[in-house]
Amino acid sequence: MHPLGEKYLRKFTLPLLWCPGCGNGTILNATIRAIDQLDIRDKVALVGGIGCSGWIPVYIDVDTLHVLHGRAIPFASGLKMSDPSRKVIVFTGDGDCLGIGGNHFIHGARRNIDITVIMVHNQIYGMTGGQVAPTTPSHGKTKTSPYGNPEIPFDGCALAKAAGATFVARWTTAHPRQLSKTIAEAIDHEGFSFIEVLTQCPTQAGRVIYGVADPAQLLDMLKANTINVNAAKNKSIEELTGKILIGNLYHDDERLEFASNYYKKISKLAASC
Ligand SMILES: Cc1ncc(C[n+]2csc(CCOP(=O)(O)OP(=O)(O)O)c2C)c(N)n1
Ligand code: SF4
Ligand SMILES: [Mg+2]
Predict the structure, then answer these.
(1) In the chain, is it the N or the C terminus that has fewer CB atoms within a 10 Å radius of its CB?
(2) Any stretches that span the bilayer, and where are they (predicted)?
């Protein structure tokens, strides 16, 4: 086993429950590297929602919570408020975050509470067998949209920024080094940080939406369909058509963070009593 796996994986939880070639393993790897780089093993708490992606924290030997579907952000917020010194990271599926948990997501961002939300965007409800998600592309065929999805998908990054998140980034599982670096930056950021990770789900989205079950081919598609936000600056509208922007998309260090501001107010009030 790789030394970082030896150091951080909970051996009794292995083997991983994910399908072969699933992108969740890459996100697990990028997270472990970020935690190791920042040397925060004893300060971090990981919170997972329900779904294949919600299992990422289960495998990492640090303080973890595996909570109700759609409720990872409220649990994480409560944890942060009870122990503001904690670095709290949420792992949430695109269904978990933008479907059932959508309201918690926008209010967490609005408060600018200091948690990092990693949203695993596989375009589908993976764990429950391939139902349509709020991120499924228009016209995409799933088990519950057999004639093609009649809806328009959410842009999770645009929604996070509009709701008040102060660090917003998007990467793919085809960019593991960049993803790990951005996870470390997001953990360091004081405020609500949101990272969307476009990922391959060979068993459901790959097979059902694209007719492609080969993980390597799906990774090639992720590379081909994305462009770095900096490289995009020099491209024409025609060159950018159909491309999804990746990279660090938004950063604001000025806005007040919720937990520290709350405790500052409380201690001021206490001092004036
Ligand atoms: C309250 C509640 N409703 C529905 C479910 C069933 N359920 C479990 S996981 C899931 C969707 C998972 O999709 P997503 O969040 O995109 O995660 P993925 O498996 O794709 O990583 C659903 C609907 C549940 N566990 N709890
Ligand atoms: S169903 Fe998709 S997301 Fe879930 S473990 Fe399998 S490949 Fe991964
Ligand atoms: Mg999903």
Answers:
(1) C
(2) none
